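Forum > Structural Biology > Help requests

Title: Can anyone predict the 3D structure of V-type proton ATPase subunit a?

Hi all, first post here. I have the sequence for V-type proton ATPase subunit a but no way to get a structure on my laptop. I'd be grateful if someone could post the C-alpha cells.
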Amino acid sequence: MKFFDNLPAMDLMRSEKMTFVQLIIPVESAQRAVSYLGELGLLQFRDLNADKSPFQRTFVNQVKRCGEMSRKLRFIKDQFSKAGQVISVRPSLQPDIELEELEIQLAEHENELIEMNSNSEKLRQTYNELLEFKMVLRKAGGFLVSAQSHAVVEERELDEHIYLNDDYVERASLLEQEMQPGPSNQAGLRFISGIICKSKALRFERMLFRATRGNMFFNQATAEEHILDPVSTEMVEKTVFVVFFSGEQAKTKILKICEAFGANCYSVPEDITKQRQITREVLSRLSELEATLDAGIRHRNKALTSIGLHLKKWIIMVRKEKAVYDTLNMLNFDVTKKCLVGEGWCPIFAKPQIQEALHRATFDSNSQVGIIFHVMDAVESPPTYFRTNRFTNAFQEIVDAYGVARYQEANPAVYTVITFPFLFAVMFGDWGHGICLLVGALILIARESKLGSQKLGSFMEMLFGGRYVLLLMSLFSIYCGLIYNEFFSVPYHIFGGSAYKCRDTTCSDSHTTGLVKYHDPYPFGVDPSWRGSRSELPFLNSLKMKMSILLGVTQMNLGIILSYFNARFFGSSLDIRYQFVPQIIFLNSLFGYLALLIVIKWCTGSKADLYHVMIYMFLSPTDDLGENQLFWGQGPLQILLLLSAIIAVPWMLFPKPFIQRKLHSERFQGRTYGILGTSEIDLDVESDSAWQHHEEFNFSEVFVHQMIHSIEFVLGAVSNTASYLRLWALSLAHSELSTVFYEKVLLLAWGFDNIIIRLVGLAVFAFATAFILLMMESLSAFLHALRLHWVEFQSKFYHGDGYKFNPFSFASLVNEED
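Reply #1:
Sure, ran it for you. C-alpha cells for V-type proton ATPase subunit a below:
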C-alpha cells in the first residue's frame, strides 16, 4: 500500500484542498479589497446576513444607485436596437472615471435621449397627420367633385321638367323640396371625411349604417401610401372615407363612432380653389417636417455613436460595482470598530494570492490599518473545486450534471475523458461516419476564438461547448470502425488480403459457400470476407455481445476499485473490509468468471456453450461439464466461486451496522461533553452537539440503509452487466441501418442507367447519412454512453452530494446578459 501512497497526486482525481478563512477589513479599504478579490476570483464569501432582507443591509443605497444606473444603461442599449445601430466592441480610449461622474453622465445622456425621442415623436405625429390630411384631400376631393357634378346634372333636369310647373310645390316630396335651391340648402346633406385602418373599415361601415339606420352614404378608397403607426412602429395600410348624412343628431353619432374606431377626421372644404390652396400648404409643411425629422435622426445617431464607444465599458463597470456592493452586503458591519467582517472558502494554493491582493488594497486606499486574514475551523463540508481547462471542462460538466462530487472524493471525470468517447464509439463504430464527425469537430476547434466571442443558439452553444468531446468521440469511432472494418457499412482490405479464399474456381463469386482459410488471420479488425456471408450476423452478434460483457465487467470493477481508494483516502477501514472486499468478490465470482471464460474460449477456439456453463453453475454446480469444460479444475473452481458469492452477501449486509453501533457506544459512553473549545460558549456548543450526535444514532435506520445498499448492489450487478449489452445492440443497429441505406438506396439507384435516378439516390443516401446516422444515431449513442457512466459506473463509488465552489469573480460578469 506504500506504493500507492508514494505515487504523485493525479490532476483532477481529487478536488482542490479548501480552507475556511475570515477577513476583518477596515471600512475605508473594504470596497477596493472586495474589488481586487473579484478580479482574482478565488474566494467564495458566505452570507453572514442571510436573516436580513435586502433593504436592511448596510450598502442598500449603493446597490440602488447601481441598479438605477443599470436601468439607464439598458434604456440606452434599447435606443441602439431601435435605431438599428451596433454597439462598438473596440476598447474605449476614455480614461477611467469615477462612479459618481458616470452617474452624472448617464443622467445627462438619458435626459438628452428622452428629450430627442419626445421631440421626434411629436414631429412624427404631426407628419403623420399632415400625410393623412394630404391623402384625405386627394381622395375626398375627388368624391366631392363627382358628387357636385352629379348634383348639377340632376338640378337641370328638375328645372326643365318639374320646377316650371305651377303646382310643383303642392306635389313635390320632402326630399325634392330639400334639393330645391334656396333657403332649404341649409338643412341639406353634409359630409364628414377622414381616414381609418383598412382592417377596421368594414366594421366601421356596418356600425355607421346601423347607427344612422341607413340614412347615410359611405364612400371609401384605399390610401396610396402606408403610414407609420407610432405605437407598433409598423407601416399600416389605411382607407380614406367620406360619409354623407343629414341632420345634427346623425353628425354627433358619426363623430362618436369615428372616435371609438380610432378614425382621424379632417375638414375638407367644398370649394375646389380652397382645396388646392390647402393642399399646397400641406405639401410645403410636409417637406419642411421631413427635413427636420432627418436632421433629428442624424443628431440622435451622432449622439448614440459617441455613447457607443464607451457603453460596453460602462456596462461592465456598473456590473462590477453592483457585484462588489452585493458582496459587501454579505459581510457583517462592526460599528464600534468601524470594520467589516467576512467569512468564506478559498483553495489553499490561493492563500498567497489573496493576501497579496489584500495588501495591495490596503496600500492603494491609504488605510492606516491593515486587513486581517486568518484561517478558521469550519463545521460544514467545504465546496468542491476542480481546476479545469478547455479540454477537460466539458467532461467535468458531464459528471457534474449527475451530481457535484463530495469534497475530495474520487472524480469520475478523470476516467470519463477516455471511457465516455470509447463507449460511444463502440456503439457508433464506422470510420466513414467517424471522419464526418472529425471534420465537424475540427471546424469547431479551428474557429474556437471566433465562435467563443459570438452569441450562439442553444444547440450550437451545446455543440461548441462539447467540441473536444466530439473530437475524441470521432477519433474513437474511426478506431472502432477500423476494428469492425466498416466504411459507411462497406468493408475494405486496408490491412492486407483476406484470410479466406475459394476452394476452386467455381466459387469465385460466392459469398456463402466454398470459402476456406488459407493463411494467417486478418491482421487488424474483422476480416472483410465475413461481409455478405451466411454466418456474418451470428459471428458479429457473438463478437459484439461478448465484447460488451468484457467492457462492462472491466468498467464496473474500475468503479469498485475507486471505492477502495475513496475509503483509503478518508481512512474508513470499515468500508474497505465490509464493502469493497465483498463487492469485488461477488462481482468477479460471477461476472468476472464469465469474462474469464469468454477470453479462454477466444484463445482456445473451444465450442463450449457459455450459456449452459453459467446456468448450470447455479442449478447443478457438482455435475460434470463434459464438452463444455474449458480448462482443468473448472468444476471445483465454479463451486468455490459460487460459495464466495453467497458468502459475500451477508458479509456486505451484517458486520458494518453492528460494528458502527459498537464503535459509537464506546465513543460516547458516559460522556456528554465534546472537544475543549476556546471559550465557555464553544464548550457548551460542542457538548450539546456531541449529545445530539449520540441521540441521533439510530441502529435500525443504519441497518435498513445498509440492507438497501447491499440488495441494490447484488441486483445491480446482474442488471448492470445486462445493461452493457446495449453496446452490442446499438452497434448492431447502427451497422444494419447503414447497410440498408447503402444497399437499398445507393446501390439500387446506381443500378439504373439514368443520371437523374442516380442523383436522387445519392441525395437520399446523403440525407439519410447526415440526419439519421450522424445526428439521430450519434445522439442515441451519446445518451446511452451517458447512462452507462451515470448508473453503471458512478453508482459503484460516487456519492455526488457536494456543492460547487462558486467564488466571487468578475470574469463571470463580462459575458452575462442583462
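The chain has a mean pLDDT of 84. The first helix runs from residue 2 to 6.
Shout if anything looks off.
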